[in-house]
Amino acid sequence: MSQANAENVHAQWVRIGIGFDMAPAQEIVPVESLFVRTCSLAADFPRLFWAASSWLAVHHQLVNGRLLGKELDNLASFESAIAGASLSVALELNPTASTLNQALSHCRPLLSEQILFSQYASNPVLADYARQESLALFRYWGFSHNQVSDKRDAIRTIAWIIRSCPDLRIRSMLGASLDAEIMHQVMLQQMSATALMERIPFTYAAIHEAASRLCDRGLLRRRVEGRAVILTIPSHIRKWINQIAA
Question: What is the pTM of this model?
Answer without folding.
Answer: 0.91
